[in-house]
Every structure is written in structure tokens, then in C-alpha cells.
Amino acid sequence: MLRFDPFTDIDAFTKSVLTAGTGNNRSPRFMPMDLYKVDDHYVLHADLPGIDPGSVDVHIDGSTLTLTAHRSTLSEEGVNWLASERFAGTYRRQLSISEDIDAEQIVASYDNGVLTVTLPIAEKAKPRRIEISSGSPSRPENAQAKQQVQIEA
């Protein structure tokens, strides 16, 4: 019995359109990352195994943080590949950051295949306690002036 699936051609077409422009099968597809908040800063970890540390770039432009890295392919002629599953090429990830981040204090390091970016929260965005005064909501200068006038009279 031969079964006909009308969606097979549509699925194949969709996959070809969505993967167009990504290069060969060994080009990077994504840069997996974790992002979390600890106390007064955010920490981003991006997995980039086998990347030359000199090719890693962290760039901020306005409210866009861009992470870029490059993994080179083997350029040996006469290589007979038995398996080729590691991606090669340029990895790029862009994130929008809020104005609550102190862009001047962002630091990054690359160790054991993991890029770590620390994004400190700006002082103006940190929670703070507001002191509460007691008494009438009048301005302190006027209250002090009234008190001095009453004493002199």
C-alpha cells in the first residue's frame, strides 16, 4: 500500500526557505546561552567551544549588545570526512539591553569554551530606600521661618 502525504513537499520547501542563506551544513546555527541576575548585576554565559579567543568580540552600540565569534574549518586538502558535525564559520548573537545597565562597566572573559559577560546594573536603577519624615508636608524652610517669627514676637 502506497501512502500519499500532501504535506511532504510543503515541509521540504519550508525547510529550504528557512535555511536559505545559512551557508553550508557546517555553518553555525545558534549560540546557546544562559542569562541570569545575581544581586546587582546580570551574568550571561554563551557556549563557544573550540573558538579561538582572539576571534571573540563583545560590542555594545546604544542598547544593542552583540556577541561575535569565529571557528575556522580545516583547510587540509585530500581529507576524506567520515563525520562532520561541528559547525564552522561566524557565530553572532544580538541582545537588547535596557538603559538600566551600566554600559561603561560591562566586562567579558572567555574560559574553557564559555564566554562570560557581566552586565552591572546602573546606580540610578538600583532599588533604594526613601526616608519618611513625620509632620505636615510643608517645606522645611517655611516651617523653620514660622518658628523663628513666633519666638521673636
Characterise the protein shown here:
The protein is α+β, with helices and mostly antiparallel strands and 153 residues long. Helices cover 16% and strands 30% of the residues. The protein has helices at 7-18, 140-152, and strands spanning 33-38, 41-47, 57-61, 64-71, 89-96, 107-111, 114-120.
Compact overview of the structure:
This protein is of the alpha+beta class and 153 residues long.
Which tags fit this structure?
153 residues, alpha+beta, three-stranded antiparallel β-sheet, 16% helix, 30% strand, elongated
In terms of DSSP E residues, the strand content is: 25-35%
Q: Find the structural class using helix and strand composition.
A: alpha+beta
Q: Based on DSSP secondary structure assignment, what is the total number of beta strands?
A: 7
Helix and strand sequence: HEEEEEEEH
**Termini, distance in Å?**
112 Å
Q: Which runs of at least 5 residues are low in confidence (pLDDT < 50)?
A: 20-24
**Main pleated-sheet profile:** 4 strands, antiparallel
Number of helices: 2
- Sum up the overall morphology in one term: elongated
Give the rounded overall mean pLDDT: 79
Report strand order across the widest sheet: 1-2-7-6
Query: In which range does the helix fraction lie?
Result: 10-25%
What is Rg?
Answer: 29 Å
Layout of helices and strands, plus pairs?
Elements: H1 7-18, E1 33-38, E2 41-47, E3 57-61, E4 64-71, E5 89-96, E6 107-111, E7 114-120, H2 140-152
Antiparallel strand pairs: 1-2, 2-7, 3-4, 4-5, 6-7
